Amino acid sequence: MIATESLSKRFPRVTALDRLSMDIGPGVTGLVGANGAGKSTLIKILLGLSPATEGRASVLGLDVATSGGEIRERVGYMPEHDCLPPDVSATEFVVHMARMSGLPPTAARERTADTLRHVGLYEERYRPIGGYSTGMKQRVKLAQALVHDPQLVFLDEPTNGLDPVGRDEMLGLIRRVHTDFGISVLVTSHLLGELERTCDHVVVVDGGKLLRSSSTTDFTQTTTTLAVEVTDTDAHPDGTRALRDALQGRGIDTEAGGELPGAGHTILLTAEGEETYDLVRDLVADLDIGLVRMEQRRHHIAEVFKEEPRQEPVSERAAAWAATAATAATAQQEGGER
Ligand SMILES: Nc1ncnc2c1ncn2[C@@H]1O[C@H](COP(=O)(O)OP(=O)(O)OP(=O)(O)O)[C@@H](O)[C@H]1O
């Protein structure tokens, strides 16, 4: 779908992209990097809106240097910044964008109604955009990117400014753009953690350079750590402690799940094999406490960056960013697990 070869973009004072080579196939792909990593610059080059300084790129098999117009006919674009006219309604604006993409008037109106419904805007679509919440504005921007039924969409930081619920809703919508309509997606974010549930593939850039490009499952392989959660009973008012003691008695080291509220009820231990699962099951049965869950933990994308030493040196900025993202991802995960 997208290929770049030694793609560079230099501004007088900064190199925004530095010999970036990558291949992106169909599906939902996350482009992750700290602010200033070069994500928006890459999207503008891929749309043929800004020329590269060096190297080559193609989108849907079309050369960005010569076929920008054709690419923009077949690709939708949701820009990062607020760019919506405040005085017109979502319907008027999206119909206008559909007409600009070449749809005849009736088709433009029909597609607009369908697309706005799909992104979750109903009666409010007749009100001026100026009175919309950030979440509603993001939905209008998504709708105008989809209205001409593109093969591929570029979504630049679509979760920016949204609260956690709004972010989850937007990520769900993005996933459905692919599953319901078969449209491939390139979505950017400066948060590593939020893309692992949405994307099939993740590309990480820092300082305009490619850090890693892998499928999400490669990033989030299962670990050998088992997370176990049990209930308390009258006989064992602290069921977690009782199980930890029993495991320790069998020579198995454990640690608490974390410092977040509630995470202390999770016990983490290393699974040597099937026998560890059996032992936990038997000890829980002997203690006559309830087993809430026993699952193998998966890596989070951010943990991969925290733990894996890479061959290429990572800039201090990237390391700091990965550490922040790891904390955020872990908090999100622990919150979701409780
Ligand atoms: N037109 C421009 N002129 C000069 N420098 C630019 C221009 N556009 C971008 N840059 C610089 O290029 C670098 C990459 O910017 P870019 O907007 O692509 O990053 P980004 O990853 O999209 O981050 P953000 O989400 O903060 O926009 C930054 O240092 C930015 O200041």
Automatic annotation (TrEMBL):
MF term (GO), any: ATP binding
Comp. bias regions, Low complexity: 318-331
Keywords: ATP-binding, Nucleotide-binding, Transport
Keyword hit for Phosphoprotein: no
InterPro entries linked to this entry: AAA+_ATPase, ABC_transporter-like_ATP-bd, P-loop_NTPase
Domain ABC transporter stretches: 2-232
Region ranges (Disordered): 308-338
Keyword rRNA processing among record annotations: no
Family: Belongs to the ABC transporter superfamily.
Protein name: ABC transporter ATP-binding protein
Source species taxonomy: Bacteria, Bacillati, Actinomycetota, Actinomycetes, Kitasatosporales
